[in-house]
Amino acid sequence: MRDRGWWLVVALCGALMVMAGAFGAHALNGTLSARLMAVYETAVRYQAWHTLAMLGVLAWRAARPLPGQRLTLGLWLAGMGLFSGSLYALAITGVKVLGAITPLGGGLLIAGWLVLAATAWRRQSASGNT
């Protein structure tokens, strides 16, 4: 199986996302302020969207492996770790210093999307399609 390690990583990201969502809904609900609960939910939402996006890139890669796809996956994984991870920690601990890491994670998520766009653009250009 091509990219077996990436499939495992994405599966684990999905499992962690569901666990984080359940933890937030059941263990944290009522214990966090509305603002911190919104921060926590943002972390879960960004992890969910990027886990789904990683599945899409892996499916695309299975059909047509291209340079840039793995870089996209790596940027999104690091971005999720820093962005969602720092927001989870901020919501649970209330330590605002952790929030300084969040923009770095967001930048990595954005970079992953830009690499994906460049990868798709290069593929279109190489095949002569516009």
TrEMBL record:
Any single Pfam family the record assigns to this protein: DUF423
Keywords: Membrane, Transmembrane, Transmembrane helix
A GO-annotated cellular component: plasma membrane
Transmembrane segments: 43-63, 75-95, 101-121
Intracellular or extracellular location(s): Membrane
Membrane topology listed for this record: Multi-pass membrane protein
Record InterPro entries: DUF423 (IPR006696)
Assigned protein family: Belongs to the UPF0382 family.
Protein name, per record: Uncharacterized membrane protein YgdD (TMEM256/DUF423 family)
Species, as recorded: Halomonas organivorans
